[in-house]
Every structure is written in structure tokens, then in C-alpha cells.
């Protein structure tokens, strides 16, 4: 180390206007020391350095290989996912088409059943009207008949004797009984 500092110190003592020269002290110069250190490093460190570089190279190659395998797996999964997506899209389209046709069918069925229900309600209404008309007509007939009968009885009572009156009542009761059996 003293040689190194001596060489720097000797540079400080050179005359500024003087001649130019080389330091001939071999041990004092760093060039030889550096070449020896580099030579020793290259000789002994070459194996270690090549091992380090080989290990690094192998790790990089393994990383590339693993990345390629992962990429191939990802591509394979992507293709499977795309195939599933296409299948699901096709099924969705089928469901959509079937759903629309099913909706149309249900709509037509609902319209048809509504028309049928309306027709049934119209028929029930007409039957109810006819029934009520017949009922009213029967009630009117019965009242007319009762009034006619009361009028006839009143006329008969005023014109008939007791014996004739009893025979007429018996005949009318027989007629009414026969009519009642016919209507029942």
C-alpha cells in the first residue's frame, strides 16, 4: 500500500515544466497488480461464474418452460370457456325463441278461453232472461186465472142455488186437481 501512495506522492513532485517520464517501479504501479488480481479472479472464478450463469440460465429456461405450459393451459381453458359460451348462447337463443313462441301460444290460448268465457256468460245471461220471462209469464197467467176464477165464482154465487153451487164447486175442484197433476 505504501507503494501506491508513493506513486501518487511522486506525481506531486514532478516539475511542471520538466520532462515527461514513466514510473519504472513495477510493484509501485497498479497495472500489474490489477492484471494479477484479474488473472487470479478469471482462473479461479471462471468455474464459479460459469456455474452461476448456468444456474441462472437454467432458472430462466425453466421459468420460460413453465410460462409456456401455463400459457398452453390458459389457452386450453379459454377455448373450453369459449365453447361453453357458444353452447350457452345457442341454448339461450333456443330458449328465447321457444319462450316467444310459448308466450304467443299462451296469449292465443288466453284469448280463446276469454272468448269462450264471454260466450258462456252471454248464454247464461240469455238463459236467465228467458227463465225470468217464463217465470213472470207464469205468474201473470196464474193471477189472471185466479182473478177469472174469483170473478166466475162471484157470478155463480150470485146466480146459483145452494145445490147447484155445491155441484159446480165439486166440478171445479176436480178440474183444478187434474190441472195441478198435469203441471206437476
UniProtKB/TrEMBL annotation:
InterPro entries: ATP_synth_b/b'su_bac/chlpt (IPR002146). The chain crosses the membrane at residues 26-49. It is found in: Membrane; Plastid, Chloroplast thylakoid membrane. GO terms for molecular function: proton-transporting ATP synthase activity, rotational mechanism. Keywords: ATP synthesis, CF(0), Chloroplast, Coiled coil, Hydrogen ion transport, Ion transport, Membrane, Plastid, Thylakoid, Transmembrane, Transmembrane helix, Transport. It is a single-pass membrane protein. One of its GO terms (cellular component) is chloroplast thylakoid membrane. F(1)F(0) ATP synthase produces ATP from ADP in the presence of a proton or sodium gradient. F-type ATPases consist of two structural domains, F(1) containing the extramembraneous catalytic core and F(0) containing the membrane proton channel, linked together by a central stalk and a peripheral stalk. During catalysis, ATP synthesis in the catalytic domain of F(1) is coupled via a rotary mechanism of the central stalk subunits to proton translocation. In plastids the F-type ATPase is also known as CF(1)CF(0). This is ATP synthase subunit b, chloroplastic. It comes from Bidens pachyloma. The gene is atpF.
Amino acid at each position: 500500500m505504501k507503494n501506491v501512495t508513493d506513486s501518487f506522492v511522486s506525481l506531486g513532485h514532478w516539475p511542471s515544466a520538466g520532462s515527461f517520464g514513466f514510473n519504472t517501479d513495477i510493484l509501485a504501479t497498479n497495472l500489474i497488480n490489477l492484471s494479477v488480481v484479474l488473472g487470479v479472479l478469471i482462473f479461479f472464478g471462471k468455474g464459479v461464474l460459469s456455474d452461476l450463469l448456468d444456474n441462472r440460465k437454467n432458472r430462466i429456461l425453466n421459468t420460460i418452460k413453465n410460462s409456456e405450459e401455463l400459457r398452453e393451459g390458459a389457452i386450453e381453458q379459454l377455448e373450453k370457456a369459449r365453447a361453453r359460451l357458444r353452447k350457452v348462447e345457442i341454448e339461450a337463443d333456443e330458449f328465447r325463441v321457444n319462450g316467444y313462441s310459448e308466450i304467443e301460444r299462451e296469449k292465443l290460448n288466453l284469448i280463446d278461453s276469454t272468448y269462450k268465457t264471454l260466450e258462456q256468460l252471454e248464454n247464461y245471461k240469455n238463459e236467465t232472461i228467458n227463465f225470468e220471462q217464463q217465470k213472470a209469464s207464469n205468474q201473470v197467467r196464474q193471477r189472471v186465472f185466479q182473478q177469472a176464477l174469483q170473478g166466475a165464482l162471484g157470478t155463480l154465487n150470485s146466480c146459483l142455488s145452494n145445490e147447484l153451487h155445491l155441484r159446480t164447486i165439486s166440478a171445479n175442484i176436480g178440474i183444478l186437481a187434474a190441472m195441478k197433476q198435469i203441471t206437476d
